[in-house]
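Sequence design from tokenized structure. All designs in this work follow the same two-part layout: the structure record, then the generated sequence. An example of the structure record is given first.
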């Protein structure tokens, strides 16, 4: 087995040397013959912030309310440290067998296959793409809720807080789907770097608005009921509700830190000097530390402002009513951010399906046809019939599922529970140990496996809470109604 591993490593290194020899003198091509990558620390950090700070931040006040002043912040910090640590391990796996000079792995799945073999690759692909699909559905739900909140906010302002203001989330989802159909025609990550920067700015903007409104509410002298252990059994919730909501809050926090499933794809946008793994580790630190600061402030101050009655989404659940225009701005920022974040998470799905289809039917004119359309301002836009049909179908399907199951907190909790352990922890840990040739039962092997098992337990508990919450939500629910 060891000899076989060494032979594979020598073959990979030789393949890289051949590629480098053939393309190293081409200024327009990278060492693998592809268009030269231009990503930097700034663009990678923007991609990460866009991927990490998403709809998850909106549920953190509710999550802290379930866990309380002690456990809540501790859990937030623990998820942050684990995410950063495992992301650093994963950054070294972009190339194999050597993290600096090895052969490139263009996707998370390719990295798993290079280090762990085909069987683990299939498990990883299943977990990754299920998670990516779930995230795009979740972002459709969240954007629609935010768009609807703008209409409701203006209605409350005109007619009073007790007015029966409603908004049609189905219409908002149709509008969101239309925007995504257009953006999805951009061929790859390299063409949406500007969208990620805009989305990152929007994410910081609405997080800051939520933070500012929480501070204003606290400064206004309204003392919400809080406690060291969160929602009180017998007062705020029943004993069984306390258990299930505690589990669900773990899933919400896990979802708030989910971006490992697109880390390799983001790293593949970086220029090769300085080494990609070095830049990606710095970008991961910048991204995770920035988001943790906002998460801690939004979660803790949101809980201080609303107490044990904190809404599931503190900008759309109407924990705030005034100033209504600022709430509108916050929800616009959420919508703009999630428009960009949707593309960050769906691009790996697009690349996987399109790569598989071209490998399966290499001579198909429909799959390979592409023409460039000149848009205003001298912008060249590539158009592909296959992309138009397949990506439009995908966007419509995710919108349809979102219309049927528009449950914000429970859906986020389920996605976080399903993806956190395998994608954020298990595969990065296993690939690191394979790359470092870690001996079984050595101290490093032992504590890394203890970390992995502990995170598996958390994911299972969070998944149980999310499933119970969804089952409760579905009782008596009628899809496509005005809400």
């Amino acid at each position: 087995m060891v000899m076989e591993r060494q032979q594979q490593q020598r073959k990979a290194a030789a393949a890289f040397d051949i590629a480098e020899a053939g393309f190293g003198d081409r200024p327009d091509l990278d060492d693998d013959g592809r268009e030269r990558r231009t990503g930097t620390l700034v663009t990678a950090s923007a991609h990460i912030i866009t991927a990490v700070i998403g709809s998850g931040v909106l549920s953190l006040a509710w999550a802290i309310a379930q866990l309380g002043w002690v456990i809540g912040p501790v859990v937030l910090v623990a998820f942050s440290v684990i995410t950063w640590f495992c992301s650093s391990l994963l950054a070294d796996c972009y190339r194999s067998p050597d993290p600096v000079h090895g052969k490139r792995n263009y996707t998370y799945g390719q990295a798993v296959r290079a280090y762990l073999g085909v069987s683990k690759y299939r498990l990883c692909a299943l977990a990754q793409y299920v998670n990516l699909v779930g995230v795009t559905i979740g972002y459709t739900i969240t954007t629609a809720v935010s768009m609807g909140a703008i209409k409701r906010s203006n209605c409350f302002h005109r007619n009073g807080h007790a007015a029966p203001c409603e908004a049609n989330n189905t219409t908002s989802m149709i509008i969101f789907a239309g925007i995504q159909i257009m953006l999805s025609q951009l061929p790859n990550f390299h063409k949406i770097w500007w969208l990620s920067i805009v989305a990152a700015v929007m994410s910081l903007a609405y997080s800051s608005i939520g933070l500012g409104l929480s501070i204003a509410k606290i400064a206004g002298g309204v003392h919400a009921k809080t406690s060291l252990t969160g929602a009180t059994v017998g007062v705020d919730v029943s004993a069984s509700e306390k258990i299930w909501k505690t589990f669900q809050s773990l899933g919400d926090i896990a979802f708030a830190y989910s971006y490992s499933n697109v880390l390799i794809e983001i790293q593949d946008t970086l220029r090769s000097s300085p080494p990609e793994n070095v830049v990606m580790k710095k970008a991961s630190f910048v991204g995770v530390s920035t988001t943790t600061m906002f998460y801690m402030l939004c979660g803790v101050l949101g809980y201080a402002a609303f107490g044990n009655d904190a809404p599931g989404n503190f900008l759309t659940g109407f924990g705030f009513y005034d100033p209504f225009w600022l709430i509108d701005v916050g929800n616009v920022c959420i919508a703009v951010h999630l428009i960009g974040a949707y593309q960050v998470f769906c691009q790996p799905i697009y690349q996987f399906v399109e790569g598989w289809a071209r490998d399966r039917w290499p001579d198909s004119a429909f799959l390979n046809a592409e023409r460039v359309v000149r848009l205003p301002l001298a912008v060249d836009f590539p158009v592909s019939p296959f992309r138009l049909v397949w990506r439009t179908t995908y966007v419509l399907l995710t919108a349809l599922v979102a219309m049927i199951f528009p449950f914000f907190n429970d859906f986020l909790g389920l996605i976080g529970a399903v993806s956190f352990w395998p994608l954020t922890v298990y595969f990065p840990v296993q690939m690191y140990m394979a790359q470092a040739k870690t001996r079984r039962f050595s101290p490093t092997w032992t504590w890394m496996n203890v970390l992995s098992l502990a995170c598996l337990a958390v994911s299972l508990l969070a998944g149980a809470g999310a499933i119970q919450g969804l089952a409760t939500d579905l009782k008596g629910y009628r899809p496509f109604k005005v809400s």
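The two ends are 59 Å apart (CA to CA). We note this feature because it recurs in several other targets discussed in the main text.
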